[in-house]
Description:
The protein is an alpha/beta fold. It has a single domain (about 5-185), classed as Lysozyme-like. About 35% of the residues lie in helices and about 15% in strands. It is globular. The model has no long low-confidence stretch (mean pLDDT about 95). It binds zinc ion (ZN).
Amino acid sequence: MNIEQRLLTVNPFSRPGKGLQTARGIVIHWVKNPGTTALQNRNYFEGLKNQSLNNPKAVFASAHFVVGLAGEVIQCLPPDEMAYHVGAKVYTPEALSRLGHYPNNCTIGIELCHPAWDGKFTPETWMSAVELAAYFARLSGLDPLKDIWRHYDVTLKDCPKYFIEHPEAFERFKLDVNIEKGENPEGEQE
Ligand SMILES: [Zn+2]
């Protein structure tokens, strides 16, 4: 897995420059924009810096990584900085009890690209996402079977659609991460 670092400019809307506590979870998202590339989605986050702070409808959004349709991985934020990927007015009871009152400050956000509106991921995206999640599970001592969340599990948002409509696929994803974590204890990152 190659990770291309394209860090966002520090700005209030997508890279607040605040520290992330030790990661207590990994949150999986879909980009909800079929056919777009990892770079396009990263550039969307970057473009948010051009908003006015006076705009009441300003969008705050980002994620640490975007995994593209060909399995390419773009890193948008250092993993020890907070991203705006899972904020909400209300959190699920499980998220509140295990991730606290503001899960952005203790979770790694991974956005996955998808070819179509059904949200299904390509095998290449799946494989890179498994490797990436396994890497952070090792790094932070997380249990892939318990500590990988769908965005939906944290806030009930309809994200990632395919893993909500196909919960068995999400279970398989977590199992794949668990296997990868066990089989590749040293990692193969650059
Ligand atoms: Zn999401």
